[in-house]
Design brief:
Blueprint lengths: L11 H11 L6 H21 L16 H11 L4 E10 L1 H13 L4 E6 L6 H15 L3 E6 L9 H10 L2 E4 L20 E4 L3 E5 L20 E6 L2 H17 L18 E8 L7 H12 L3 E6 L6 H12 L3 E7 L5 H8 L3 H6 L2 E5 L7 E5 L3 E5 L5 H6 L2 E7 L1 H16 L1 E4 L1 H5 L3 H11 L6
Parallel strand pairs: 2-3, 3-4, 9-10, 10-11
Antiparallel strand pairs: 1-7, 1-8, 2-5, 5-6, 6-7, 8-14, 9-12, 11-15, 12-13, 13-14
Helix pairs in contact: 3-8, 4-5, 5-6, 10-15
Length: about 450
């Protein structure tokens, strides 16, 4: 007979229970990968939307006061300089001929930066103009973002390079180089000729911008032609991205000449990006909104205000500022459109006026404050422009220039229909759900 100590004796049931308790929980590899991706996406969204400025700006200064320009210029790292002319150019029928004409007259340098460059009729004209100037001995530098050159043929690039055009992809001068942060793009749109004439706005090198925005498939947009001392600031913005990409510095009179003082407008050109004054784009808009006394006119393709911007716009309305916002009725991105709509409810309820541009896609990026201050360029009113992309805008303090932009704004109003609060609230429930879901990812738009 075997002797069994009680504390060593285990029945089969006991052993099974113990085995069941100690068997480790196994999670399949696909679920681990999915979990890691979810956590990574959450961190990306948080980091991309973690803005520094979180408290409403309060000021008694008006955009027309000298104290405004004397403060805003240094805060943005771009002083307002006098002696400039700024002419708004409306749609492709105006801005493409003006840009091509300026290139054709180049004698020293041409610097062009675009977020999108697509092969087509417009591209062919620009390529021919750039090749002509390069063959004439003009220094020609072209910079395009890696997320915007997918529709550009290699043969077009090769043609330019063979003729002496220095064509590079932002942050990746050679094809074998890897850009670590693929979510960071240059969204800037700049053309600077001889360091004396500059163009900026929302326009890319693409057939979409052809025509007069009177048919679907062609976009409504505005470009500004600038002359005067501020063009040197525009050139410096281009030179920054060129340096980041090529490690080569553009300098000397071919790029930074004496521009003279052909006009009276006070203008600055500032840059913004995650590695270059990351709050500049957002701060520029919020400073002007805080300083508004009479009116704010917003023309924006992607109007996706964050909580602070909504709060400050409502505060402006409550102190008697009339606010009008033109947005697209037809958008190139259904997801972007839904995310934008998710942010409009409080503004409509507060009395902000919304209008939807009907003829075609509306791609303007302009704000006019108190009939004297205008900001325009590549910056969209969304988190991607405010926090993620490299951007550039010009700020203009001049009543005559503002009047030209107001005329264009009023023309757009005539082709827009009001969006009422009741209409907004009556949209179908499935649209509301889609808007809410898209809105949770708005930081990446």
């Amino acid at each position: 007979m075997k002797f069994k100590l009680p504390f060593l004796h285990r029945t089969s049931a006991t052993r099974a229970a113990k085995s069941k308790r100690t068997t480790p929980l196994r999670v399949s590899t696909p679920w681990i990968i999915i979990g890691a991706l979810v956590v990574g996406l959450a961190l990306l969204i948080y980091r991309s939307s973690a803005n520094i400025l979180k408290i409403p700006i309060e000021t008694t200064i008006s955009v027309a006061d000298s104290d405004f320009r004397d403060s805003v210029g240094p805060l943005l790292g771009a002083e307002f300089v006098g002696g400039n002319t700024v002419k708004p150019l409306i749609n492709g029928r105006e801005f493409f001929p003006a840009m091509l004409d300026a290139i054709s007259k180049a004698r020293k340098s041409v610097c062009i930066e675009s977020y999108i460059w697509s092969s087509g009729k417009v591209s062919d004209k620009f390529i021919a103009a750039l090749i002509d100037r390069a063959k004439a001995g003009v220094k020609v530098h072209a910079l395009v973002d890696g997320a915007g050159d997918f529709k550009m043929s290699l043969s077009d690039i090769d043609r330019m390079k063979a003729a002496g055009v220095e064509f590079v992809v932002y942050a990746r001068e050679h094809w074998y180089q890897i850009k670590p942060n693929i979510n960071h793009r240059t969204h800037r749109k700049l053309l600077i000729v001889d360091g004396k004439v500059g163009f900026t706005g929302g326009v890319c090198i693409d057939d979409t911008w052809m025509g007069d925005a009177n048919e679907e498939g062609h976009w409504r947009d505005t470009q500004a032609r600038v002359e005067g001392p501020v063009v040197r600031e525009m050139q410096a913005v281009f030179a920054a991205n060129w340096l980041q990409t090529t490690s080569r510095l553009l300098m000397g009179p071919n790029y930074f000449p004496d521009t003279g003082r052909p006009g009276d407008a006070r203008v600055d050109c500032f840059k913004s990006g995650p590695d270059e004054s990351p709050e500049n784009a957002r701060m520029s808009y919020l400073l002007a909104i805080a300083s508004a006394k009479k009116s704010i006119r917003l023309s924006h393709a992607y109007f996706v205000p964050d909580d602070l911007a909504i709060d400050m716009l409502i505060r402006a309305h409550q102190r008697g500022v009339k606010i009008d916002v033109i947005v697209p009725l037809k958008n190139d991105s259904r997801f972007g459109r839904a995310a934008a709509r998710s942010r409009w409810g409080k503004l409509l309820a507060a009395g902000v006026n919304f209008y939807q541009f009907e003829p075609c896609m509306y791609h303007c990026k302009i704000m006019i404050v108190d009939d004297v201050y205008t900001t325009m360029g590549s910056i969209n009113f969304d988190n991607r422009s405010f926090s993620i992309n490299d951007e550039a805008n010009i700020n203009i303090i001049d009543a005559d220039v503002a009047a030209d932009f107001i005329k264009s704004f009023n023309d757009d109003l005539a082709h827009s229909k009001p969006l009422t609060l009741q209409e907004f609230r009556d949209r179908p429930f499935y649209i509301k759900i889609a808007d809410h879901i898209a809105g949770t990812l708005r930081s990446q738009l």
